[in-house]
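Quiz preparation item.
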């Protein structure tokens, strides 16, 4: 059973999401928060698998709430935004969110996203990665080379660059003439070596370290 926490300051929005989620046999809504402070408190107390987090809330916004939740728990956060390229989305991913969804997303996409994040993957489809990172990586200041990257082999650096480019494991396998299972293993080992939570954090690190830059191929 996937335990979900809803964090949104609009009661009707929470009710709408709850009605969708509770109709599924494998998802249970364990709590609701009307602001960021409540979201942080409930996440620590209830330890849900996934938090659906509105980015704009009173008292404490979704960005800071996400940062606090990720710092203190292993709870995963999906950011909810009105626009698919919200100014705060990139910052939310840097804060530790595992992905984002637009509020008017179809119910099936919402359910899929929750299941994806609950099993430990990042909710960043390749097409979304390309658009999102292409837009917000431009905001990154001077790259800060990370010494952690020294732990990677040449092949792992190559794979990481392709992840940052927005390729799926299957696409990476095709590009490098590997099996999909081997590509997935490479990605998993890279995340372990670099101590990142998921694919979203791996993409962020690739850009912030200067390994890849917007527009590179």
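Solution:
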């Amino acid at each position: 059973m996937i335990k979900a926490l809803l964090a949104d300051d609009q009661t009707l929005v929470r009710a709408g999401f709850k009605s969708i989620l509770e109709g599924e046999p494998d998802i249970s809504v364990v709590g609701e928060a009307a602001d960021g402070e409540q979201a942080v408190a409930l996440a620590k107390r209830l330890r849900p698998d996934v938090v659906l987090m509105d980015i704009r809330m009173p008292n404490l916004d979704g960005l800071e709430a996400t940062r606090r939740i990720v710092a203190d728990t292993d709870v995963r956060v999906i950011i909810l935004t009105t626009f698919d390229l919200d100014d705060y989305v990139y910052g939310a991913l840097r804060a530790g969110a595992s992905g984002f969804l637009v509020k008017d997303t179809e119910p099936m996409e919402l359910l899929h996203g929750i299941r994806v994040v609950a099993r430990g993957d990042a909710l960043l489809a390749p097409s979304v990665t390309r658009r999102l990172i292409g837009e917000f990586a431009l905001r990154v200041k001077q790259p800060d080379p990370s010494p952690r990257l020294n732990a990677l082999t040449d092949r792992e650096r190559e794979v990481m660059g392709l992840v940052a480019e927005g390729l799926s494991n299957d696409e990476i396998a095709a590009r490098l003439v590997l099996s999909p299972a081997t590509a997935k293993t490479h990605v998993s080992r890279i995340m372990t070596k670099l101590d990142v939570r998921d694919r979203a954090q791996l993409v962020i690190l690739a850009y912030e370290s200067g390994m890849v830059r917007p527009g590179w191929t």
